[in-house]
């Protein structure tokens, strides 16, 4: 069999050689001119692949060759990073670096379009690489399966001979400031976007004398106001639109749309899916002279970042964690026993109404945590058991009811309804 296989391969090789010689003879006979189309950097398959954008004045052959030479670093292969990466890879960006240490979760799939049901549990960076490989083999993919930290950010930005452009597709304030500061100190332009619920923002930063992220947002949002998608909710197309906008601006920057003097003016673009109009465009001034990163007397340096004296976690703060007394908490098992014993009690569910509508325990009373202080409460006949999704808001509620309303028999159900679904009732939805 091996011999047969070898002969088949030999035969195929000879045939292909013969075919090549025949074609070249044809060309000679018909007088075709050798123009070296492949030598200038694109192979014939790439001409076909990129044809529809190649014939646009804004791109053209020079734009395509610029894309191919470009190296773009995408921080985060999530809701923003996925659509951005898909379009950058499709457009033929030569090198795409991806920084992500997370793994694909089922709850990512409604918006993170590079991942799919079969890559759940896989590293997001690898899942993204798999997608790019099947889309466009001409893209060189570099993976950094790590969290971006003050000790590795400069190294990563400068690896591969240095990236030309960075896309900030993260969702934590501390990382955003780190991405910005590294980009400013290495003089790399940054396309930054964010999205939450039904709204998004986009801006080109550290570009042609324009502002940086710190010029726009000198101070981080208060830590308790930061919702991540875990509890904040996000509509897939909203974050998708913002990620696609990032890829569009990246392509424009890389192909020279802003090269000409006066073509670029800094702006903050705001998208509101349910607003009229949906888009607002706020023009911005140039960089702030007082900015600690890019101003006249910057206070940040590579050294201060790498040695930790610029402390991002302290700067952005930590959300206040309510820790109540262990005697004020019961496990889901204990609560299940209490329910089956028929003991009279009130079950107060403090999740938002949209979550309460998805699923709830029979007999529970819904008062969203966000409305606790603003609405008259129903009659809470003690004992009161408080639950929420994961068991954080419920603890804060227990504290509030005891301290502000002077109730005494109030208990938190540890781990919330998510824990209930895991340990007690497998038919109760986890979302
Ligand atoms: Zn600045």
From TrEMBL:
Compartments it resides in: Cytoplasm, Cytosol
Keyword field: ATP-binding, Cytoplasm, Metal-binding, Multifunctional enzyme, Nucleotide-binding, Nucleotidyltransferase, Transferase, tRNA processing, Ubl conjugation pathway, Zinc
Pfam families, alphabetized: Rhodanese, ThiF
Protein name: Needs CLA4 to survive protein 3
Region (Disordered) residue spans: 1-38
Cofactor(s) of this protein: Zn(2+)
Family as reported in the entry's similarity comment: In the N-terminal section; belongs to the HesA/MoeB/ThiF family. UBA4 subfamily.
Cofactor detail note: Binds 1 zinc ion per subunit.
PROSITE patterns registered for this protein in UniProt: RHODANESE_3
Source organism per UniProt: Blastobotrys adeninivorans (Yeast)
Gene name per UniProt: UBA4
């Amino acid at each position: 069999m091996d011999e047969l296989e070898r002969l088949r391969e030999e035969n195929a090789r000879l045939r292909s050689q013969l075919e090549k010689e025949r074609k070249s003879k044809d060309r000679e006979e018909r007088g075709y001119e050798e123009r070296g189309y492949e030598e200038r950097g694109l192979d014939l398959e790439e001409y076909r692949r990129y044809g529809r954008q190649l014939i646009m004045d804004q791109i053209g052959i020079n734009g395509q060759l610029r894309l191919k030479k470009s190296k773009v670093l995408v921080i985060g292969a999530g809701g923003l990073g996925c659509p951005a990466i898909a379009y950058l890879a499709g457009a033929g960006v030569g090198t795409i670096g991806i920084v992500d240490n997370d793994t694909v979760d089922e709850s990512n799939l409604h918006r993170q379009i590079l991942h799919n049901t079969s890559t759940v549990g896989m590293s997001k960076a690898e899942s993204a690489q798999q997608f790019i490989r099947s889309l466009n083999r001409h893209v060189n993919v570099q993976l950094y399966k790590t969290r971006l930290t003050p000790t590795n950010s400069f190294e990563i930005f400068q690896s591969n001979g240095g990236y030309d452009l960075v896309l900030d597709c993260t969702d934590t304030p501390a990382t955003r400031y780190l991405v910005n500061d590294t980009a400013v100190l290495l003089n790399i332009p940054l396309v930054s976007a964010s999205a939450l619920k039904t709204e998004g923002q986009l801006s080109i930063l550290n570009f042609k004398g324009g502002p940086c992220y710190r010029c726009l947002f000198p101070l981080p949002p208060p830590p308790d106001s930061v919702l991540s998608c875990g509890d904040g909710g996000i509509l897939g197309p909203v974050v998708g639109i913002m990620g696609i906008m990032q890829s569009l601006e990246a392509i424009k920057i890389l192909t020279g749309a802003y090269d000409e003097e006066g073509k670029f003016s800094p702006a903050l673009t705001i998208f509101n899916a349910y607003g009229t109009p949906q888009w607002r465009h706020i023009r911005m001034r140039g960089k702030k002279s007082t900015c600690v990163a890019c101003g006249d007397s910057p206070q940040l340096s590579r050294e201060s970042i790498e040695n930790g004296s610029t402390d991002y976690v302290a700067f952005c703060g930590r959300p206040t964690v309510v820790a109540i007394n262990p005697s004020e908490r019961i496990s889901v098992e204990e609560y299940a026993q209490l329910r089956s014993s028929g003991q009279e009690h009130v079950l107060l569910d403090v999740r938002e109404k949209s979550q309460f509508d998805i699923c709830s325990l029979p007999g529970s009373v819904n008062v969203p945590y966000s409305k606790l202080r603003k609405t008259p409460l129903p009659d809470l006949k003690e004992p009161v058991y408080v639950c929420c999704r994961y068991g954080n808001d419920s603890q804060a509620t227990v504290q509030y009811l005891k301290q502000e309303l002077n109730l005494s028999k109030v208990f938190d159900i540890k781990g919330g309804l998510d824990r209930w679904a895991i340990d007690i009732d497998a038919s109760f939805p986890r979302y």
